[in-house]
Design goal:
Keywords: Bacterial flagellum, Cell projection, Cilium, Flagellum. Its main location: other. This is Flagellar hook-basal body protein. It is a single chain. About 20% of the residues lie in helices and about 35% in strands. The protein is α+β, with helices and mostly antiparallel strands. The strands form seven sheets. Strands 14-7-8-16-15 form a five-stranded antiparallel β-sheet, with no helix packed on it. Strand 2 and strand 3 form a beta hairpin.
Length: about 280
C-alpha cells in the first residue's frame, strides 16, 4: 500500500516540474531569441517481487530447502530525467532599430555523438570571466559607446574584444561586418556550438559551456554558413498553442495522480480505523 503512495507521489512531482517548464516557455513566448525547454519523463526501473519460503521434506532428518516464487514486477514511479532546449530558429521580424541584429542559420553540420545539428550564438563578455552566448540580438550602445545586450553584457568582436562605436550610425553586412562611413570598423563575434545540448542555460537567454571554455568562432568553420540581418530580431521559437495543449495535458495527469492518492488515503483510513478496530 505504501509503495503505491510513493509511486503516485513521483508522478505528481514530475508533472509539477513539467508544468513549471511549460509555464516558463509561455511566459517567454515574446522574448527575442528565447529557446523553449523540452522535458523528458522516464520511469524508474521496475522492481521484481518474489516470495521466499521453506519447503519441508518428510524424511528421517527433516530436510528443508528454500523456495523462491516469483510474484511479478512492481513499477516504482517516474521522474523528470532531463530538460533540453529546442534550438530550432525562431521567426525573423523587423524592428527598425539600427542596433538590433538577427542571426540567421544556414548550413549547420550535425554532431557526430548526438546526431543533432549545431547552432551559432552571439559572443558576450561574461562578468565572471570568459564568454557567454545568446541568440537575442537586441543590442544597444552604453554611455561609452560600447555595444551591449539587454543585460549590459559587452558584445564581443570576432577577435574577442569589446565593440566600441561613436554612435548608432553604422551598418552591418550579411557577413557580420560592422561598417562606419562604408569603412570596416569591426566584425560581430559569432561562435559555433557543435553540440548545443552541452551548454548551460542561464537567465535571460544567456548560455555558457559546462567547463566555461570558449566556443570556437563560427567564421571559417567547415560546413557552417550563416548570415546577419540588421534592424531585425529573431523571435522566440515557443509554439504557444502546443505549449498550452501540453500544459493542460500535464495538469490533467497531475489531477489523475491526485485522485489516486486520495483513493489510497481513504483505503488506509479504513484499514486503520475500521478493519483495525475489528
Amino acid at each position: 500500500m505504501f509503495k503505491g503512495f510513493y509511486t503516485v507521489a513521483t508522478g505528481m512531482v514530475a508533472q509539477q516540474r513539467k508544468t513549471e517548464i511549460l509555464t516558463n516557455n509561455m511566459a517567454n513566448a515574446n522574448t527575442p531569441g528565447f529557446k523553449s525547454d523540452q522535458s523528458t519523463i522516464r520511469s524508474f526501473p521496475d522492481m521484481l517481487l518474489s516470495a521466499v519460503g521453506n519447503t519441508n521434506i518428510p524424511t528421517k532428518n527433516s530436510l528443508s530447502f528454500s523456495q523462491i516464487n516469483p510474484i511479478g514486477s512492481l513499477n516504482t514511479g517516474v521522474y523528470l530525467q532531463e530538460t533540453l532546449a529546442n534550438y530550432v530558429q525562431g521567426t525573423i521580424y523587423e524592428t527598425n532599430q539600427n542596433t538590433d541584429v538577427a542571426l540567421i542559420n544556414g548550413a549547420m553540420p550535425a554532431d557526430e555523438e548526438s546526431g543533432e545539428a549545431g547552432t551559432i550564438f552571439f559572443r558576450l563578455e561574461h562578468p565572471e570571466g570568459g564568454e557567454a552566448y545568446t541568440r537575442n540580438g537586441s543590442f544597444t550602445l552604453d554611455g561609452q559607446g560600447y555595444l551591449v545586450n539587454n543585460q549590459g553584457l559587452y558584445v564581443l568582436s570576432d577577435d574577442g574584444e569589446r565593440i566600441q562605436l561613436q554612435n548608432d550610425d553604422f551598418s552591418i553586412t550579411e557577413e557580420g561586418n560592422i561598417l562606419v562611413d562604408n569603412q570596416l570598423a569591426d566584425t560581430l563575434g559569432v561562435s559555433f556550438a557543435a553540440n548545443p545540448n552541452e551548454l548551460v542555460k542561464q537567465d535571460n537567454g544567456v548560455y555558457r559551456t559546462i567547463d566555461e571554455e570558449n566556443l570556437p568562432s563560427a567564421y571559417g568553420q567547415q560546413g557552417v554558413t550563416f548570415s546577419t540581418q540588421q534592424s531585425f530580431l529573431e523571435g522566440s521559437n515557443v509554439d504557444s498553442a502546443q505549449a498550452m495543449t501540453d500544459l493542460l495535458t500535464s495538469y490533467r495527469a497531475f489531477e489523475a495522480n491526485q485522485k489516486v492518492l486520495q483513493a489510497y488515503d481513504k483505503s488506509m483510513d479504513k484499514a486503520v480505523n475500521e478493519i483495525g478496530r475489528v
